[in-house]
Amino acid sequence: MARKSRGEGRELPSPSYQVGRGQPPQHTQFQKGQSGNPAGRPKGSRNFKTELRNALAAEVVVQIDGKQQRISKFRAIVERLMSSASKGDFKAAALIVELGQKIDFEPLSATNDQIAISSDDQIILDRYVAQAALKMTKKGKPNE
Asked: Which residues of 6-37 are buried (b: 16+ CB within 10 A; e: fewer)?
């Protein structure tokens, strides 16, 4: 039985085709209509992101302020994290701040057009600001 020599039975590439970077030999290229990974991920299978989203959306029963409520697991995690942070858990607080920065969170702030202040309240606030400014200027002077 004679051995086949390399390349026997294969078509020779056309003389105009140059093999090089980004141009593999034609006999090693994918055939038309053939997938590069025929045994790849089956259609309809879920990836990690989908599985995680479904797991976090599942509801659980928790007690909030002595009342049982059905909330998502994601909401339960956030509530627990906020509770721990408000009780002084530095790691929980740091995580909340970090996550807030990642989602571009801006705390709600009151603007002048959102708050209606009576004229009496405005006078009190103006006096307080003036007194605070006076104290700051006195602290800045030497020998006092």
From this structure: eeeeeeeeeeeeeeeeeeeeeeeeeeeeeeee
